[in-house]
C-alpha cells in the first residue's frame, strides 16, 4: 500500500487508500441495489444523469461483517508470517484465499484454474562507480546515495553508462491530447535525459491548467518519465529531485532506490527499457547546468511553457554498477461469477493479499508485519463482496474477483495481470480496488481519488446521494495518490477504475476524531508489527465501505453502460483506441 503522510482518513492523504467506510447505523441489507434494467443500460447520451433506482424490490444483500472479521483475523495471524510473497508461507496463504472464494460461491477464474503465476525479477545494484560529468568548465564527480541513485530495469549483470550526451528535456512529457511534446525534434538514442519532477503547472493554487494545476497527473509521476524516456530511445534517464514538487524528501528517494528493485519478468528481459534510471539531488543538477554554462532556474521556467524544446547541455555523463539477479514467482488468485447476459464483459474487484512478511522487530521483539489493515481487510471485503454478489444472483456481466500479489513490491501482481489479462481489457468495463480499510466509525463523506477523471464520477456521486452522503475534494491531490495502488495498473491501460476514500468527518466525533484515528495508524502501525487484528475493532466504517463497493460494482455489472475517461484525461486516448479496435466489448 502506498504511504503518504497525513492524519486523514482519506486514501491519498492518510496512507493512500480508502480507509474504512461509513456505516453501522445504516442496517445491512437496507441499501437499494441497482435494478437489472435501469438508466445505466447504455450507452448513455452525453449529459445523462446517473442515479441508482430506488426500487424497494431490489435490495442489496447483506455484506457479512462476520466473514470480514474472520478472514482478516486469519490472514493476519502470526503463522501466516506477514504474507510475504515468494516465501515458504505463500502456498498456505493461497490455499486459504482459494477456500474462501470457493465458500463464497465463485468459480475458478483463470481458464478453470484459481491461480495466475506472476514471474518476477529482483535486482540489487552494487559496486557503483562515481557519476562523472565531463566536457564543461570543470570535471564533476558525484557519490551514490549522497548525490545520486540509480538502478536498471534491464536484467543484466552489469550496467555501464559511458560518455552519454546529457540533454535537458524539461518535464519529459509527450502528451498528444494536449499538443505537448518535450522531445519534439530531438533523437534521444545514445543520450541521457535530464528531467524535472512533477508536471509543468504544479505550483498552481487550484486545479486549473493543462495538467490540472496543483493536482498531479500521470505525466508528473516518476514512473511515467522513465517509461517515456525509454519510448524515446534514451540510453538513460535522470530525474532532478526537488522536495516540494516531489512531495517527499531525498531520504525517501535514497531509501527506496538503494535496496532491491522488483519488476515483472518479460520475454525480452526489459531490453526495451533505458539502460539506467535514477535521480540526482537538486544542487547536483544546478552544478551540472552551471558547468555547462546554463542557467538551471531559467531553463526550468522555460520548460513550463508549451512549445519548449529540449536543450543539449554539451556534457557527457558516465557511471556504472553491477546487478545481483534473483528470479522468483508469486501468484494472483482469480475467481469469477459468470454473467447471465453478457458473460464476455467483465467488472473487476481487486485487493492485494501480500504484505511485508518478516520485518524489523519492535521493542517487544515482534518481527512479523502481519498487515491486518494493510491489506487483510481488503481481501476480507473482496471475499464478502463475492458472497454477496453470488447471493444476489449473477449480474448481466461477469464479475471477476482478484486477490493480487506483490503490491508492496511495486504493484507487480496487478501489472502482470494487466500485461497478461485473463479477460481482455477491451472487454473489461471497469472496476473497484480495495486497499487498507481502517477500523473506524462511519463518516459523512467520501472523496474520489484522482478527482473527476472519468464517467465513474457520475455513478459515484449518485451512489453517495442515494446513501445520504456527500462528496469532498481529495486531500493533497498534488501527491498523485491515484497512481500508487493496484487500480492504476489497469487505468493506465485504459480501464476506468474506482479508488474512493472516506473523509475524517465522522458522525461519531467529527473531523478531530477521524484525524486522530488516521494519525494513530499512520504514525504507529503502518508497515509495522503492530498492524494486528483486534476483537475490539469498530467495523462500522469497513461495513459501509463494502456496501459502497457493492453498489458501484453491481451498477456496472447490471448495465450495458461503458464508462470512459473524461475528454482530455491522460488515459482517454488509450481507451478510445482500444474500443475502436475491439470486436464486441467496449465502444468509444
Question: What can you tell me about this protein's structure?
Answer:
This protein has 588 residues and is of the alpha/beta class. The protein is 26% helix and 22% strand. The chain has helices at residues 65-75, 90-104, 222-231, 243-246, 250-257, 282-291, 296-302, 372-392, 412-419, 456-467, 487-491, 510-524, 540-557, 572-581, and strands at residues 107-108, 115-126, 131-134, 140-142, 148-151, 158-168, 174-175, 180-181, 191-196, 236-241, 261-264, 276-281, 311-337, 342-352, 357-358, 368-369, 397-404, 428-433, 445-448, 470-471, 497-498, 500-502. It has a 15-stranded mixed beta sheet that branches. Strands 20-19-22 form a three-stranded mixed beta sheet, covered by helices on one side. A two-stranded antiparallel ribbon has the order 7-8. Helix 3 (222-231) links the parallel strand 9 (191-196) and strand 10 (236-241). Helix 8 packs across helix 13. The protein starts with 64 loop residues before the first helix and ends in a 7-residue tail after the last helix.
| Topology, number of strands | 22
Content-based structural category: alpha/beta
Question: What oligomeric state do these chains adopt?
Answer: single chain
Which term fits the overall shape?
A: globular
* CATH hierarchy, class of the largest domain: Alpha Beta
- Rounded to an integer in angstroms, the radius of gyration calculated over CA atoms is 24 Å
Q: Tally the helices.
A: 14
How large is the share of residues in beta strands?
Answer: 15-25%
CATH architecture of the largest domain: 3-Layer(aba) Sandwich
Helix percent reads 25-40%
Distance N to C terminus: 32 Å
Model regions low in confidence, pLDDT < 50 over at least 5 residues = 2-57
Question: How many structural domains can be distinguished in the coordinates?
Answer: 2
